[in-house]
Amino acid sequence: MSALKPRRRGDDPDDEQALAMIRSMFEAADPVPADLVDRIRFSVALAGLECDPDSELARLSVEEAALARGAPEESRTITFDSSSLTIMIRIDSNTDGTVRVDGWLAPPQRCRVEITLADGPVMTDADAEGRFAFLSVPRGTARLVVRQAEDGSGETQPEQSGAKAVTTPALMLL
Amino acid sequence: MDEQLATVVGSTSARVPGPAVAVDELVPRHTPMLWHVARATGLSKQDAEDVVQTVWVSLLSHLDTIRAPEALTAWLVTATRREAWRVSEAGRKTRPADNEWLLAIPDPKANSEERALLAEEQRTLWSALHTLPERCQELLRIVAFVPRPDYDMVAERLGMRRGSVGPTRLRCLDKLRVAMHAEEGRI
Fold first, then answer.
1. Is B60–A5 a contact, with Cβ atoms under 8 angstroms apart?
2. CA neighbours within 13 Å on the CB side: how many for B20?
3. pTM (2 d.p.)
4. Size of interface A-B (CB pairs under 8 A)
5. Quick one: A71 exposed, middle or buried, by C-beta within 10 A (0-12, 13-18, 19+)?
6. Mutating which of B24, B31, B120 best tests the A interface, going by the most A Cβ atoms within 10 A?
């Protein structure tokens, strides 16, 4: 606890050390709620869709009504278009009440695919043919974010002027 | 300078994803700081969660007013504090800091000696900190979480006269040292 012993005037490293101790004390004492970051990211994403119409936002290109009216037993297919990418997903019901989401990217490419759910994001990777799958996803609100593979993991995606992400609108998985 | 911030603020590149996606990447990094800024004003946990969420969403529509990347931290901290005061005044919810966290500290006997010492130390620090004037408590908690390079700009916006924050911080730390001695003498 030397940082809080009497100090020499203007001894800055001691001040920094004292502040670091205060920080770790509050981190232990009053931690950020575990799911707060994910809930905020979800809110930001939804708000961003409303106030930011010209971002790389994939647009629903097949009737939304088909999604709403889809019979639970049947698989539903939804397609999103953006300037650089088309995302098609098929939603199937699992017997345990969750859903399975299979997706295809066109043009085919290795990508990191994230599905953001009410209780947090889940990641998977699309293979070289652009296929990806989330085997068991709870029903509810979700959106997909497709990111260009990070350096090294996707030889088909040379780094250009920064990573690119395509976001779908929020979906209701039924 | 921070590459991510540079990407968000003032970006004109067509290849950069929309602001929502860029802000999305900043949220995990800065949310802890904003949580502690909100809680330092005395808000309940539930209110603090709402405040931090509101601030992030409102950042989306203010991005174009934040010219320099360094200003982002200052904007976030100032907006959080303002929103926290608005909420606590609206609900008259200001109340003394709670002690519920004490229950969350693991039983020292069940852990390593190091960890036991740390917990004990933190309890003493907590007690000492809470003998300080509220202004010092809030200032030290905020300063402890603000990244060093952004500190000057944040301090300037905390409603203190320019140039007075450094000395105030020193005075608060001195008071804390004295209080720590008193607490340690009590054991």
1. no
2. 24
3. 0.57
4. 137
5. exposed
6. B24
